[in-house]
Write a structure and sequence with these properties.
By secondary structure, the chain is mostly helical. The chain has 4 helices and no strands. Helix 1 runs antiparallel to helix 2 (76-90) and helix 1 (43-56) packs across helix 4 (105-117).
């Protein structure tokens, strides 16, 4: 390949959730798209836990989706960076107040799903 990328490896389509992220958050089985979003249930939460974990230097498994992410040391700079990450990953414009209005990973994911569902 001219690009130097291994066959089958490349960039994901805009808004696609990448990686092997699974986990049930609602009654829907992991890997099943959440109604109206096209994103498997649990993948948004997993992606958010990975991003928060990167910012606060913790493994994503230590990030409780029901706990306020401010409790992990996420300050305003990290929160704004997370908003930018969300915009890049999901193709949505989000307000910089997102994390204050939806303080947990669970709440942010529900908000994103509602926005994606239209």
């Amino acid at each position: 390949m001219a690009s130097g990328l291994a066959e089958g490896v490349g960039t994901a389509a805009p808004g696609a959730v990448t990686g092997a992220m699974t986990g049930a958050v609602t009654g829907t089985a992991a890997g099943t798209p959440a109604p109206g979003t096209g994103h498997p249930v649990g993948t948004i939460e997993r992606w958010l836990a990975e991003r928060v974990g990167e910012y606060v230097l913790r493994p994503p498994e230590e990030i409780d989706p029901t706990a306020a992410i401010a409790g992990y040391g996420m300050d305003s700079v990290y929160n704004l960076s997370l908003c930018g990450d969300i915009e890049s990953e999901f193709g949505l414009e989000v307000d910089p107040t997102l994390v204050w209005e939806h303080p947990t990973i669970e709440a942010i994911a529900a908000h994103l799903r509602a926005r994606m569902a239209g």
